[in-house]
Amino acid sequence: MELKFILESLLFSAQKPMSAKELRDLLAAAAEQSEGDATTAAYKKVKESELVAALEELSRDHEAANRSYRLVCVAGAWQFVTQPEYAPWLKALVGLKNRPPRLSQPALETLAIIAYRQPLTRAEIEQVRGVSVDGVMQTLAERGLVEQVGRADVVGRPPTYGTTSLFLEYFGLRSLEELPAADELRRIEVKKPESLLTADPGLATVPPEQLVGQKSEAGDQNSGVGAGETVSTADSALRAPHSNEHS
Question: pTM for the full model?
Fold first, then answer.
């Protein structure tokens, strides 16, 4: 029995997307529960690279068959999804669901900066955008799109931020490497800020008293103040969230 068909049966029956590691653990568990069975024992110690290769082949098979569904990997997990052109009928089947409000332009700009340059501090984000990002950072964190991933090795050791797996799922990406022109944008130098704009003293790298009079994100929300070329390019890659294609 071919490995790719075993994986197909598992993903078809699974209630959620599954990573290669989870599938590998299932194969090992099946072998232990079916002791003495040569077929299950053959895949007890299958390598993760072999498993991914089988999934890739299975995905190509489904693509070539031109069926109404396909196999994709989003945020490191594999799942069957329907083709987008069948959305009108699926909406009639499941009904319209309340969707969270769309991200504002400042939030999209900030998210693009983090996605392409992570990990980075709030001060570095503000150096690129030219405004405080306190409000949008809170929004992005509440939506589960960004999170603290460490601390910078500078005075004050401010937190550094990166995107989450939900970010990949939201935009339908397998990994950050699928971001358009990622290598080129990451080579653009970001200078260390001379002063910090954030209004949160706990996150500052300069004394809080120096933060008085800084610009606020609220003004930015209304004026639509844009970032530089880096942000504009990155933002264009993040304008169209991946639609929910679950079958």
Answer: 0.61
